[in-house]
Each structure stands twice: as C-alpha cells, then as structure tokens.
Amino acid sequence: METFLSLLSGFSVAFTLQNLGWSMIGVTLGTMIGVLPGLGPAATVALLMPLTVGLEPVSAFIMFAGIYYGAQYGGSTASILLNTPGEAGAMMTAIEGNAMARNGRGAQALATAAIGSFVAGTIATVGLTFTAPLLVDLSLKLTAPDYFSLMVLSLASVTALLGRSVGTGLLALFFGLFLGTIGLDPQTGQGRFTFGIVELLDGIDTVVVAVGLFAVGETLFTVANLDGAREKIHAIKGSIRLSRADWARSWKPWLRGTAIGFPIGAIPAGGSELPTILSYTLEKKLSKHKDEFGSGAIEGVAGPEAANNASAAGALAPLLALGLPTSTTAAVLLAAFQQYGLRPGPMLFDTNPNLVWGLIASLYIGNVLLLILNLPMVGVWVRLLMIPKPWLYGGILMLATLGTYTLNGNAFDVVLMWVLGFVGYLMRVMNVPIVPVILGLILGPLLEQQMRRSLAIGQGDWTVFVTHPISALLLVLAAVIVLMPIIRHLRGARRIPQHQS
Amino acid sequence: MIFLRRPGFSLGVFGVLAGSAIYLGATRIPFGFGYDAVGPATLPKIIASGMILAGGLCLMELKRPLDEDEPIIFGRLLPVVTISVALLAAAAFMETVGWIPMAALVFAAGASAFGSRSYMRDTLLGLAASLVVLLVFSYGLGIRLPLGLLAPVMSLFN
C-alpha cells in the first residue's frame, strides 16, 4: 500500500505538463540516436547527457528515463532493418528480425518488437515498482564488507559471463578498474597516476569512456573494415499491423521474455546479453515452427526484444535501491546521478522520494509514448537509417565531440575521448570485451570506498570480508564464477595431449 | 610477427608489462593520513597484480595449434588516421578557432574517411549543422560553446 501511494505521488510529479514534455523529448531523442547503426543504449545515453545540464534533477532524470527506454526501442529498429545491433542485447533480435526484413516481413518484425517492448517494459516496470522498496529494506541490512563483496561478485560475473576468454575479460576489467583509480584519492587527497596532467586530477569521466570506447571506437572499427558495399535497407512493405497468426505466435514469447529478462537484469549478470540469448534459445526450443528459425521466425524477435526491455527495467532496481549498476547503460546512468551530486541507494528513497518515484512513474508514461512513436511513426525512423554513411558517421563523430566537450567545457576531454576511442578500436580488433572496462571504471571507486571502510571497521584486518557471512558467501560465489571456466580450460588443455598420444 | 598472429599473446604481454608498470607507479603513491587503515596505494597494487595475473592467463589460454588462432586484422588505417587527426585538431584548436569550424572539420573528415568525395558539400553541411548546434546550446540550453574566430561575427546577433 505504501508503495502504491509512493507511486501515485510519483505520477503527480511525472504528470505535470513540463515533465511530460521532457519525457516526450527524451523518448524522441533516445529513439533518434538509438536508431543510428552501431550506437547502443549506453552510448546514446552518454551522448545525450549534456542536453540535460541546467535542468532540475527531477526533470533531468525523467528525460534520462525517456532516453534510456527510447534507445532500447531505437536499437531494435536498426537491428531489424539494417542488421547493425548497437549492443549485445540487440544481437538476437538482429538474427531473426533481419531475416524477416529480408523476406519482406520487416513491418511485422518492427511491430512485434515494439508491442513486445511495450508489454515487457510495462510489466517489468510494475516489477521494478514493487521490488525496489524490497531491495531497499534488504540493502539496509548490508554492511560495508557485504557491499564490497557484492561489487566483486558483480564484476566477476560480468567478466566471466561475457566474452570468449576469461583472461581477456579480466584484463579488460582490471584496465577499467585502473582507469577508475586515476585522479585524486577521495579519502586522502593524494593524486594517483595523473602523470602531472592537471585535468586528470578530477579523474576520468564515465561519459568520456563510454562515448570513446563505444561511439568513437565503433566508428574507427567500422571505417577500417569498410568494404564499400552499400548495406541494404529493407523497405517496409504493407501495413505494420500484426495478423492474427502473428499475435498468436508473439504473445507467449513476450511474456516468457519478460519473465526471463526482469530477474536476470536485476542480478549482476552483465545486463541484457544473457537474458536475450536465453530467451532466443527457449523460443527456438518451444516453437512449433523450428524450421523457420534462422530465416525469420517471429518468436525469435518477440522473445529477445521483450527480454531486452525487461532487463533494462530490471537493471534499474539494483541501481536505484543499492547504487549498484549491473549493465553498461546503468553505469552511465549512475554517472548521471553522480553529476547531479546524487547517490542512488537506500538513502535516495528517503531524501529524494519525488525524484525516485517520479522517475519510476515516468517509465510507465515513456513506454506508452514510445509505443505511439514507434508504431505509426516508424517510417520517420527508417528515414534516419537512409542517411548516407559518410554523413551518418560524420554526424556521430560531431555528436561525440559535442558530448565530451560540453561535459566540463574542457578540450582535454576530447583528447581523452580519442585515446579511449583508439583503445576501443584496438579492443574490437583483438576481440576484447568492452563492457567490463566501463563497469570496472564506475564500480572501482565505490569498491575502494567500501573496501577501505570495511578495513577501517576491522582495524586493518582483511579477514573482515570472510567473517561477515553474507560477504563470505558472495565472495565464494564470485570465485566460483571466475574459476570455473579457467579450471574447465585447464582440464580441456590437459585432455588434448592425451588424445593425441 | 607473433604479436600480430596471436592476439592472446600480445594481450598477455601487455597485461604483464602494464601491470608491472602500474605496480611500480603505485609504490610511489605517498601514504595518506587519518583513520585510513590501508592507504591510497593498496587498491592500485591489487589491480596491478590482477592485471599481471590476467596477462598470464591470456598466455595460458593461447590455443595450442597456431593456425587455429585468429590473427589481428587492423583493416585500412588511412581513414582511421584521418578521423584521429581531425579529432585531435578539434581538441587543440577548439578554444582559439571555435566550435563551428572545428565541428565542421570533424564532420567533413569523418565523411571523407567513409568515402565521400564532395569535400565542399560536406564542409558546408558540417558548418550548417555546427551552427544549429551552437544556437540550440547557447540559446536553448544556456551552454557556452567557444565562438573562437567567429566571435566578432556572432556578437552582431546579440
């Protein structure tokens, strides 16, 4: 009941004309940038962050929520029509969605993606509404060592679950953690790894890293591998309405995708990649049209799209209640909170209920707005995909420069963005996952704070992390997740010579 | 070149070397004061050790038969250089030359890297787009973008 009243007060905040306007601007811009090929939700949110400077925090976050959901919708349009998933979570949609588009069923793929995203987004937002307060209650029971271990677990699972090799994943993670230590140590004021550069004393902004690694890195990688062939955009034929058969084949995958996406999005498991893969596999297994998979099965779009959006809402639960980002986009959102001097976590529900509940309420509104934007107006977004590549990427580079420069009004950030963009290009070339870098960067300073707080409580005794039962359990889990693939690899490596002999 | 033929090898070597360098750097961080039990150098040392370990792991994970490894393919480097030079020039001259010409340069360089050959049209389009951005940011959002060389011209409109 209390939750319900809080939500109602949230709606009273979100339903003002002004905030509805910001939500509308947010979903429109989010869809517009998200639809550009190669730009996923994290890069979209990072690129659009400067636009919210100067707004009231509540309005700014309502706009962010719109951008966040809008980028999810826009990303699926690009995946379906152009086969350019901007983020791992859209990869599965691209497989079946683009196959459907090739068969002239692009309109139906877009429709099932949009309606599925709406259904999943709305159900998952209800889930968020009721789990966030529960998580807040739980988080009040956690001590500093527990928080530390929870972050270790979060980083461990992202590293081990994504990417092909644990070694490269860990390397990316430690690189991100290292980037996070650059600047003044918040507790003692000592400069660390600043190489005498004054601008580095403030540390490296998450936004610069996200824009550099994703937008610039992706652009450099794309231009290096350009083969001159024009990508084919598949025209949308006929009405965007779903036939009765399409509805019948879509609604169950939507619900199953939601059921998979929300909980996995909420636990530290690396965001939307895992739930979308699980949903795709499940739909393939359950489908009566198994033979259509790979050549355009509507279930393969409906399920993963729902899972993707549900996990986006799921990721907001630990972000708001614990201050713990479980996906890159959540990490960028956390950076946005930090820019406003706000710390997501249990205290935020107490000190700033208008902001938290206004944000949650605006997610319901944003979902409705997005359905309206994406069903009848999909043609407008498709136009954006038809912009010639040179102008598209020229524009992306300009936006990236704008976003990083306006962050602090400092040209050094643009240099940093290029450096990170080049690193991102090298990482793409060598197949190193990028997500652990961003999560390491944003979680590193929080992790260090909890680590030093725990050690201060334990008077320098490191056993403090294993004598607290919750912390010990989380650390064991983290160790298992990282060590399992390594042990499996070592065993496999030993077996091969035996085979040969 | 084994570095190019085996990405895992290059990454492993990078991890070990960078980790060692970070460790060395961390030993030079002066110890803090106050109630801090471990000081500001502890986490960097842990990170450095982790990086060395991760590098070692990359080396261990190297696929046994060499030809199974995917070699590093950098692709065409000229367009990468074009974009890089434009971005660095934009950073260097943003304050003095101003947002409009520099953003137009980034746009035109990006377009030419992606194969466009109508330099004049791209530059004009870039100028127009950056002007719109500047107007929206300064009048709509109250965020100042450097006017640079165009400051005298722009002041006429104020």
UniProtKB/TrEMBL annotation, chain A:
Pfam families: TctA. Signal peptide: none annotated. The keyword Transmembrane applies. The keyword Membrane applies. Keywords: Membrane, Transmembrane, Transmembrane helix. It comes from the Bacteria. Residues 20-439 form the DUF112 domain. The chain crosses the membrane at residues 47-71, 110-136, 148-181, 193-216, 315-335, 355-378, 390-408, 415-442, 462-487. PANTHER family: TRICARBOXYLIC TRANSPORT PROTEIN. This is Tricarboxylic transport membrane protein. It comes from Aquamicrobium terrae.
UniProtKB/TrEMBL annotation, chain B:
Keywords: Membrane, Transmembrane, Transmembrane helix. Residues 14-146 form the DUF1468 domain. The chain crosses the membrane at residues 7-26, 46-62, 74-93, 99-116, 123-147. The keyword Membrane applies. InterPro entries: DUF1468. Pfam families: TctB (PF07331). It comes from the Bacteria. This is Tricarboxylic transport membrane protein. It comes from Aquamicrobium terrae.
